[in-house]
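Before relying on records like the one below, remember that each one covers exactly one chain. Contacts with other chains, cofactors or solvent are not represented anywhere in the record.
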Amino acid sequence: MRPQSSRLDLIPEADPRSLRRWGVTDCDQIDRRALTRSLTRLQHDEVAPPADMTRLIRHIRDRYHRALVGVIEDAVALATACEVAHSDKELWPHGLCDRLIGILESIEHHQQREDAVVFPLLLADQPQAAKAARIMEAEHAGIQGQLDVVLALTRGFEVPAQACAKWRVLYVLCCKINTDVREQMRLEERELFSPCIRESTEVSVCSDAMFG
């Protein structure tokens, strides 16, 4: 008779490249050089966003699109490894790995739609741009809800005293993801989408007033 699979048997193995990149292939040992290199890559010189739409879109792609997916993928790998090692601990946030995978999928789909449809419409000043921007804002609300769940699961990214190196690095990445995703959404809504939606609304109001 085939033995019944346990829950841990169903968890995929963590990507070893991600663990090596963060210097935490072992729970109790840290490759400080690798860790320092990766932490340095998380740092960005924050500058005021460009006012020009073309440059603003390029800034969003370079600063957020290209960086965020890689960070979330590494967080998924670390969460996977921690789930295997610490699933029996009371303070381990059960379900975190699944939540991060959900965020990764949402972000990837969202970015693909922005790159393929929304940004070109905005740059071409097409009338459909306002509707597309509203759809993106609705997606933002859904992603924000996913981030709120991770924030609650990790107790505000507060690392337990007994947490190992993987667990601690994981919470650093979760905090970075939370900060950067929210900032990207804020930047898009206030600086990129808002003028387009406001102009569309003003045109609609004027048309209703003139021909209503």
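DSSP finds six helices and no strands in the chain.
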